[in-house]
Design a protein that fits this description.
The protein is 34% helix and 24% strand. It is α+β, with helices and mostly antiparallel strands. It has two domains: 137 residues, 2-Layer Sandwich (60s Ribosomal Protein L30, Chain: A), CATH 3.30.1330.10; 165 residues, PurM-like C-terminal domain (Phosphoribosyl-aminoimidazole Synthetase, Chain A, domain 2, Alpha-Beta Complex). The protein is globular.
């Protein structure tokens, strides 16, 4: 016996996440009723993942549930926002209960980790796609933005970059060892949004963005919004051994333009660098300085041998062939 849309909602989504006190009315009515705290802005972001475009057919539904929420929470992290609520629009070819069970498992585990409640959404039949909207809170004067950079700000990146892009390339082209493949795949399938780091950077960082489209593409967004350029020292990029080997062979595209890292790129005024580094170390938030913002437009790449170039690999673009 097939499940109806309302059966799916009751069985898989109504109690998928823990309840929050600021949800007056959640799933089950025409609208959710939500009560934001006073004195804060509501930060809202939405992303869509489409089968065959953002994830391969047959992808592990548990990992997919995690990633679908993680990429949205990463946007809140980039603003320094505290996550609160989420809505989910899920389009599926069939009501596959095994797939749904796995998806909700991955989704719910990450939601519980960050205190997020699922408050509504939609289910419909069609090609598999997942659209998630997250809402969070941040004080207006402490929100991180792309336009907050200033000349002389030092540039930092959290975690490691390039592993997700290399995982995708290795899966389709060049096989890795089982150990390396597992490590890389973990970074592609289960990115961890840097929410704690985003909160730590409030009132300390100049500009910030999450790395979804590739380091240089996203740095370009910061430069454009801030009206600045940047200088990036490639020898200082935080990369794994696998990505470092690719860079040493001249294949910088994984670290520079691969995307899907969901780390934070941020700038820090010189006067606040020591404080930020001390706090990051104490909070176990790994960050690496990679360059600085400059007055001159454009991004200059300084290679390990000392030569500089303005030739920029392209980042991810949904509408580029």
């Amino acid at each position: 016996m097939s499940l109806s849309e309302f059966d799916l909602i009751r069985q898989y989504f109504s109690a998928a996440t823990a309840a929050r006190d600021d949800v007056i009315l959640g799933i089950g009515d025409d609208c959710a009723l939500l009560q934001p705290p006073g004195g804060v802005c509501l930060a809202v972001s939405m992303d869509t993942l489409v089968e065959g475009r953002h994830f391969r057919p047959g992808a592990d539904p548990v990992a997919l549930g995690h990633k679908a929420l993680a990429v949205n929470l990463s946007d809140l992290a980039a603003m320094g926002a505290e996550p609160a609520w989420v809505t989910l629009a899920l389009t599926m070819p069939t009501a596959d209960t095994d797939w749904l069970r796995g998806f909700v498992e991955g989704f719910s585990a990450l939601a519980a980790q960050h205190g997020v409640q699922l408050v509504g959404g939609d289910t419909t039949r069609g090609p598999l796609s997942i659209t998630i909207q997250v809402q969070g809170f941040v004080e207006e004067d402490s929100a991180l933005t792309r336009s907050g950079g200033r000349p002389g700000d030092r540039l930092f990146v959290s975690g490691q970059i390039g592993d997700a892009a290399l995982a995708l390339a290795r899966a389709t082209n060049s096989p890795s060892s089982a150990e390396e493949a597992g490590y890389l795949q973990q970074h592609l399938d289960r990115p961890m949004p840097r929410l704690a780091l985003g909160r730590l950077l409030r009132r300390r960082a100049g500009a910030a963005i999450d790395l979804s489209d590739g380091l240089l593409a996203d740095l370009g967004h910061v430069c454009s919004a801030s009206g600045l350029g940047a200088r990036v020292e490639l020898g200082r990029l935080p990369v794994s051994q696998a990505v470092a080997a690719e860079c040493a062979a001249g294949r910088w595209q994984y670290a520079l333009a691969g995307g899907d890292d969901y780390e934070l790129l941020f700038s820090v005024p010189e006067a606040k660098v020591a404080d930020v580094l001390r706090l990051c170390s104490g909070a176990d938030q790994p960050v690496q300085e990679i360059g600085c913002l400059v007055d001159e437009p454009g991004i200059v790449l300084v290679y390990p041998d000392g030569h500089a170039s303005k030739e920029i690999p392209l980042g991810f673009d949904h509408f580029r062939d």
